[in-house]
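Before any further analysis, we paired sequence with structure tokens, yielding the entry below:
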Amino acid sequence: MAMDRRDSNSDIVSEVVSGCLMTRSRRISRVITNIYDQELRDYGLNASQFSMLIMIAKLGGASRAEIGRANFQDRTTLTRSLAPLLAEGWIEELPTDGGRSRPVVISDSGKKLLNDAAPAWREAQRKASQLVGDVGAKAIIGVAESLQRVDEPK
């Protein structure tokens, strides 16, 4: 019976194995993320935390909703991502002046962490760029910069 099931799935298996963008992009993401995680480990943060700190620093004070939109994250995922950064004191939520949303900003310790970890990020960047090559690096950056949220109008 198991053999029959495998045979009936052979078309989809072959199709996915030969060209699934999701499978390939997740594999690339895991490998590249691991490179950054290894380099940033000595600073007490991982690649996704570093990326989130950079996003918050770039936005210069933004609501959770704005951060989520900029980083293509839903509210639940964003809350989980922000929690350790808040706990470590790398970011802060400022008090509101009557509005509902509290702006999230990078703290002084978060700015110091980014500066201290910059050489590790540069080394990870060098290793990742070497792994994917110049053409691959340009392709990844180009695709990422052209992405539009699925729920945004085209």
Strands lie at 91-93, 104-106. The chain has one domain: 29-146.
